[in-house]
Amino acid sequence: SRAVTVAAADLGASSGRVMLARVGPDLLDLTEVHRFGNQSVQLGGTLHWDVLGLYRGVLDGLRAAGIAARSSGGLDGIGIDSWAVDYGLLDGTGALVGNPVSYRDRRTEGVMGKVLAQVGAEHLYAVTGLQNLPFNTIYQLVAARETPAAQAARRMLLLPDLLAYWLTGEEGAEITNASTTGLLDARSGGWATDLITGLGLPPKIFPPLRRPGDWVGLLRPDVAVETGLDEDVPVLAVGSHDTASAVVGVPAEGDRFAYISCGTWSLVGVELDAPVLTDASRQANFTNEAGVDGTVRYLRNVMGLWLLQECLRTWQAQGSPADLETLLREAAAQPPFASVVDPDDPVFLPPGDMPARIADYCSRTGQPVPSSRAAMARAILESLAIAHARAVRQAQELSGRSVEVVHMVGGGSRNELLCQLTADACGLPVTAGPVEATALGNALVQARALGAVSGGLSDLRSLLRKHNPLRGYAPQSTRGRDGSTAWARAEARVHG
Ligand code: LFR
Question: Residues in domain Carbohydrate kinase FGGY C-terminal (predicted)?
């Protein structure tokens, strides 16, 4: 089998990138060819994504990828992944109706409660196996059910599928991302039609499903012209939910590992063969999202570095930006456990003045308000470490899988303080890297579909271990099983 050259477009809540990967049986090489910012936009009281800006970023990236790939014989494939749950609606002519809305928009406030009262939380979990987040597609669609855009819709396409549609003209819903909608049946793997009709949503808007590795289609002629690529370059389905691609990109050996895909969110969990649909799992709000190769991503969302990102954005908007590297160095020197928050508190979900919300949380809970930016950063990172450790522990308890190492991947795995604090809080070794696990997972699934590499996830992962420098963090304080350590006491302050 010959090596292939593929473009992996990975869209995150704060930036998008197109990476060029060369993959072969003993080759895995990744270069960034284009990076662009992404920010949601408030418009007329609704928080939108700049979806055309994202599409332009993908086109620019593909053009750059095509140029960079010339020396290796051109591009062999294109794969797209992004964050989950958000979507665009198409009318009967294939035109976008309305601009896609961000999952952080307030239109879903109160909707989850109403839907749960109608269909029953137990029933919903039994059907979908999905954690309840207020922004799941199911709640967004119900919130917008009566709008003219929804009335005009012929199709609902999740964001990576929408971009793939614009590139190829082919409609579909890739399953790893479809599994985050709250409208997919966890057992049958198909759309949960009874649930859909019961909620007054039109079943016809849900496109046929496709799997990672499936052929989506060839570039439209106008797109080929626009990007300078050949028309015969295929778009391939990958784990189009970024977290699904990130989990492929976890360089683990064996199955006794937990992962933390660490970016705007921290997605914390284990990889399983079968879903866990117990009542304890439902109450702990663990999710069974579809992974690549029929695996189950059994995990929980932890609010993640969003808390720090929003602090930085607030300080910047106030005219006194902070330098992240300096801030983290100062945070490392701060006294431990001054104040901790539950990062998953819903007050932290919307965009806005994060330092004020954290200060507020601290005074509400009788803790000192962080007196400096360094103290604020320390409080955030310790709070995340506590939440990481709690989710790793619960994932083991609820699934029966035991964990010997925690893999941190994604942008957050570059944050040495967060990695060390996570190792300490878990009482487990942390292996950090790769930073670009998502793009690597995206590229590996394409390369396998194109026949350049073969085997299961464990084979793809050994390629990752061989070609990526990883960094290890040993836990510096062990967590007593009786819960008497400083970390356990700190956890008790938020989960008393
Ligand atoms: C991470 C992620 C999470 C999903 C959240 C919102 O980027 O995809 O998995 O819960 O974004 O879509």
Answer: 258-449
